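User: Hey, quick favor. My workstation is busy. Could you predict this chain's structure for me?
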Amino acid sequence: MGYIMELRKLVGSRPLIMAGASVILIDKSDRILLQLRKDNNCWGLAGGSLEMGETLEEVAKRELQEETGLIANNLKLFNIFSGKEFYYKYPHGDEVYNVITTYICTDYLGELKIDNNEVKDLRFFSVDEIPTNISPPDLPIIKEFLRLSKII
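Assistant: No problem, here it is.
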């Protein structure tokens, strides 16, 4: 989060519009990969904020690899999320209004490897076993994915 951290030096904790990407990674058993975040002790998707010059797809791939050790071969655009329900106040006080581009990934390589800086645990969950303590910015995304996956 180099760009956002640089902005924070100038504006402190006041709300920022933060563009980023997340990945709904699905294994061959149709389970969703979630990470237990260190900052809020909630489960969420791999993802993070856009750095200068990056594309949103590059963000998604970079964050997936950094946080899980997995390399996305192919990403499919799921949706772009924004609005009041994507406001989030981090436990340390920084405030953001997220604009999140979410991708679906079913084609990936590698072995799960936890990023000890940000992640406590990584697990695949079936759609009927999704934990209740989902990170607030990821909750509407996961709900929308589950709603649509029942239709598909």
